[in-house]
Amino acid sequence: MKTVRIIHLYADMLDLYGDSGNMEVFSFRCKKRGIDCQIDKYSIDSEIPDFSSYDLIYIGGGADLEQQHISADLLKCREGIIDAYKKGTFLFLICGGYQLMGKYYRDADGNEIKGLGLFDYFTVAPNSRRKRCIGNIVIETEIAGKPVKVVGFENHGGQTQGVKTPFGKVLYGNGNCSKSEAEGYCEKNVIATYLHGPCLSKNPEISDYMIEYCINRGEKEHIALEPLNDDLEKECRQVMLDRLLRK
After folding, report:
1. Is the pLDDT of residue 122 over 80?
2. What is the 3-state secondary structure (H, E, C) of the chain?
3. Quick one: pLDDT at residue 24?
4. Which tens digit of pLDDT belongs to each residue from 131-162?
5. Does residue 196 carry a catalytic annotation?
6. Which of 30, 156, 177, 196 is catalytic?
7. Which entry of 30, 37, 77, 95 is annotated as an active-site residue?
């Protein structure tokens, strides 16, 4: 079976609420199935790699200051990331990583951080830093053709607008904007979300969707994933669902 190759961007700067743990979960679930998982890291002033040679590009979340620091460097990678996206590399984007793939992010002071413009959405923070979307969140989405309730934790001031294909419907919490019905952005090879936690530890279906996508990239015949015992993960999630969605 092929080696899944991942490049983790700005792991030293974008790691809110355990976001780097997503890569630990992804790698663990690969290895449980005998799938090799290679995770390379890229940060400011590193040599720009061939992004299209990777099966997955991962970017975690960070505060406004970190996003400002990496913005210029990320823009240098723009053409390579766009080329990779067009060639089918999967993009998994959390919070700040999600925002920076849009047109721009305007912070509470009115400073505009230019995004890659890969997608049409944009993000604007309210003037007051006290106005934030913060707390536990539950969304309902569809993964591999099946409905799934996804749980996580959100903490963002930015209000993301212009999203045409959200990741899921908000059942509890805020989502892309304060008290909105939609959360995140999604395509076949893109999952962008505000869910921290890390997201994948609570929601194994998302991990497996991305793993299956990656091992089938470039393959002529479909390779099915061997199921894992996720009883513990699902029981833990159910506790949160019962707590947050009880009538």
Report:
1. yes
2. CCCEEEEEECCCCCCHHHCCHHHHHHHHHHHCCCCCEEEEEECCCCCCCCHHHCCEEEECCCCHHHHHHHHHHHHHCHHHHHHHHHCCCEEEEECHHHHHCCCEEECCCCCEEECCCCCCCEEECCCCCCCCEEEEEEEEEEECCEEEEEEEEEEECCEEECCCCCCEEEEECCCCCCCCCEECEEECCEEEECCECCHHHHCHHHHHHHHHHHHHCCCCCCCCCCCCCCHHHHHHHHHHHHHHHCC
3. 97
4. 899 999 999 999 999 999 999 999 999 999 99
5. yes
6. 196
7. 95
